Amino acid sequence: MKQLPIGPVMIDIPGQSLTALDKEKIAHPNTGALILFSRNFEHPEQIAGLIKAIRAARHGHILIAVDQEGGRVQRFQNGFTRLPPAAAYAAQPTMAEDAGWLMAAELLAVGVDFSFAPVLDVDCGISVIIGDRAFSQDCELAATLAGDFRYGMKSAGMAATGKHFPGHGAVALDSHLTLPEDNRELDSIRQQDLIPFRRLIAAGLEAVMPAHVVYAEVDKLPAGFSEIWLQKILRKELGFDGAIFSDDLSMAGAAAIGDFAERAGLAQQAGCDMLLVCNSPTAAEQVLDTLPKRRENWRHQQRLQKMRAHGETDREQLLKSDKWRQVSAQILQLSAAYA
Questions:
Q1: Angstrom distance (rounded) from CA 15 to CA 321
Q2: Fewer C-beta within 10 Å: the chain N or C terminus?
Q3: Contact at 8 Å (CB) between 66 and 38?
Q4: Rounded Cα distance, 117 and 90, in Å
């Protein structure tokens, strides 16, 4: 049987093992990736087995992702090093690179391709959903620390995803619950929020996730549905040629666009290579079945292929290594000190 290409839709599953319906959706031609959540996780051995089953259900490559930033956003905890939020590294900047390596190495050892990290938002002191998920309120320091974290990920063999383009840190509302609006001028965003994105893109950042935020002075559409943001600014102005992952299309911040098929179509038209549809099985099925088959495009495939894990990491050997023991102990100390 001919191997399927990596499709344009990222789905999720409800439990810790696969059902017949899960396998059917994984095998769908439009499926390209699967994101795991805390509900899918019990312990490292279980998640490694689940990931093997997911890969076996696909006649071709499938990307496996998770949100493992640290702090409030760490889906796998039992058997994994507890990571501090990104803001903790401002006090210990030399640890950012090691933390990126540790996070990536532990995930790679159970079969995950990548974590949606690092956060490149610049905290402005008003966003509840971002807050200490950002590395700093200083755009230059945020760029430096995020760059170090990303370098650590890369050294372990993991591609990075910078989020949430062009910056979610200046709005108080949570795009999971509503559609925030940022009324700053583009030049103001360029001089602050775009600095981390510009710096990491220049260093080879592999992927970007846009925000479900309207930047009213630039476009009436949220960034993830905006050709101005994704084509004119991200691709042309910033020179980004990596993968663009939509944020979850089931979030309230995407609801103003229309139904799920309309959201998926507009996000793809704007330039998203991969469409996330999570926490709504019916919505995922609708998008999988209604999204028009995209002509095979080597550029889309090339961008997405770069998100696959590089090399193999043996978990038993990792946990016996001096580097893991030393770095894990240091990160645990930092987590405890920050808490």
A1: 32
A2: N
A3: no
A4: 17
Residue range(s) defining the domain that contains residue 304: 9-338
Strand partners, 64: 34
Which string of DSSP letters, residue by residue, matches 109-172? TTT--EE---B-PPP-S--TTTGGGSS-SSHHHHHHHHHHHHHHHHHHT---EEEEET-STT--
Residue 59 forms part of a structural domain: yes
**What are 131's two structure tokens?**
């807050």
Q: 165 lies in a domain?
A: yes
Per DSSP bridges, beta strands 73-74 and 68-70 are antiparallel
Q: How many folded domains does the chain comprise?
A: 1
Output the domain CATH number for residue 164.
3.20.20.300
At 92-139, the pLDDT tens digits run 999 999 999 999 999 999 999 999 999 999 998 888 889 999 999 999
Residues annotated as catalytic are 176, 247
Would residue 2 count as lying in a domain? no
- Entry pTM: 0.96
